[in-house]
């Protein structure tokens, strides 16, 4: 989004392409994180992304693919993410029940994890979709009294999908970063996650939504003043802070976690046993 922007004369010509390049790099990094997360989840018989974070991400991708994005390359990227989401959804539904039973003492969520995920995703589509419809209902929507000249959507001038994506992805990113850190602390084991996964998603967050927008804010302030707003600093500051803390918590957790005979992981001192599912798959018992 934003690749068709026409900046004012005083803005260097490289700014919009640089913005698009940063978003492309972020796309590759997040794609790698999805693949690594699925592989790690299969290896540890767990899942790597919290339910709310996964639902929010999937909903964001659905809304932007089918309603907002106009460029074929952007649509292909979002379609690929939805394909990669299949692995995340599968491991969540497949292994989530045992994790919830062992780590949180909430067997109801575990027994109904597919329905819970579907409900959260539907709610996310309503929220993201409603926000997008509202944003694109009239020209000029955005932070403050910004000049949206050069921003377009659907062939109409004054519609800034770049800013819209900045806010909607910012909320989603906070949910992911806070959720992943909270899940690691709550479970006490690193099932479905690891250093490479953290590195890819954290770097993707910094390169795309943060570094990718700074030149736009600096050289095209009329339309991008929101990048330096208090709300923006809060959203992305919280996300980055959680991502910076994450590897230290992960290191502590991995030092103390237990590796069970079936490949799953458990918190130190856990009484977690081999699940009935693992027994059906022919795994050893403890």
Overview of the structural elements:
Keywords: Membrane, Transmembrane, Transmembrane helix. Belongs to the paxB family. The structure is a single chain. With 286 residues, the chain is mostly helical. Helix content is 68%, strand content 3%. The chain has one domain (17-277). The longest helix is centred in the N-terminal third of the chain and has 33 residues, at 72-104. The chain is elongated. Residues 274-286 have low confidence and may be disordered.
How do the helices and strands line up, and which of them pair or pack?
Elements: H1 15-44, H2 51-68, H3 72-104, H4 107-111, H5 113-135, E1 152-153, E2 156-157, H6 161-187, H7 195-211, H8 214-219, H9 221-224, H10 230-256, E3 258-259, E4 265-266, H11 276-280
Membrane topology: Multi-pass membrane protein
GO molecular function: lyase activity
Pfam families: Pyr4-TMTC (PF25129)
Annotation keywords:
286 residues; mainly alpha; two-stranded antiparallel sheet; 11 helices
Give a summary of the structure in a few sentences.
This protein is mainly alpha-helical. The protein is 68% helix and 3% strand. It starts with 14 loop residues before the first helix and ends in a 6-residue tail after the last helix.
Rg over CA atoms = 21 Å
Strand order of the largest sheet: 1-2
Contiguous helical run count: 11
Whole-number total of structural domains: 1
Low-confidence stretches: 274-286
Secondary structure class reads: mainly alpha
Q: How would you sum up the global shape?
A: elongated
**Number of DSSP E strands:** 4
Order of helices and strands: HHHHHEEHHHHHEEH
Main beta sheet, described?
A: 2 strands, antiparallel
Fraction in beta strands: under 5%
Question: How far apart are the termini?
Answer: 52 Å
Q: Indicate the mean pLDDT.
A: 89
Q: What's the helical proportion of residues?
A: 55-70%
Main location: membrane
Pathway: Secondary metabolite biosynthesis
Membrane topology: Multi-pass membrane protein
Pfam family, one: Pyr4-TMTC
């Amino acid at each position: 989004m934003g690749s068709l922007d026409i900046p004012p004369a005083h803005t260097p010509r490289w700014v919009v392409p640089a913005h698009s390049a940063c978003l492309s790099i972020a796309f590759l990094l997040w794609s790698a994180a999805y693949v690594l997360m699925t592989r790690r989840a299969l290896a540890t018989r767990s899942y790597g992304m919290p339910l709310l974070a996964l639902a929010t991400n999937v909903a964001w991708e659905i809304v932007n693919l089918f309603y907002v994005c106009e460029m074929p390359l952007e649509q292909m990227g979002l379609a690929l993410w939805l394909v990669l989401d299949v692995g995340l959804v599968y491991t969540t539904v497949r292994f989530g029940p045992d994790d919830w039973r062992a780590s949180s003492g909430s067997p109801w969520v575990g027994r109904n994890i597919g329905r819970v995920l579907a409900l959260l995703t539907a709610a996310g589509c309503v929220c993201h979709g409603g926000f997008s419809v509202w944003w694109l209902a009239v020209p000029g929507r955005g932070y403050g009294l910004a000049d949206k000249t050069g921003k377009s959507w659907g062939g109409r001038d004054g519609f800034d999908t770049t800013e819209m994506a900045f806010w909607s992805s910012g909320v989603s990113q906070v949910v992911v970063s806070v959720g992943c850190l909270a899940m690691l602390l709550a479970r006490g084991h690193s099932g479905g996650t690891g250093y490479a996964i953290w590195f890819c998603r954290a770097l993707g967050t910094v390169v795309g939504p943060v570094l990718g927008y700074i030149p736009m804010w600096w050289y095209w302030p009329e339309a991008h003043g929101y990048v330096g707003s208090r709300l923006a600093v809060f959203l992305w500051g919280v996300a980055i802070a959680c991502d910076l803390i994450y590897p230290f918590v992960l290191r502590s957790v991995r030092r103390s976690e237990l590796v069970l005979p079936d490949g799953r992981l458990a918190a130190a001192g856990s009484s977690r046993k081999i699940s009935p599912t693992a027994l059906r798959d022919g795994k050893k018992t403890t």
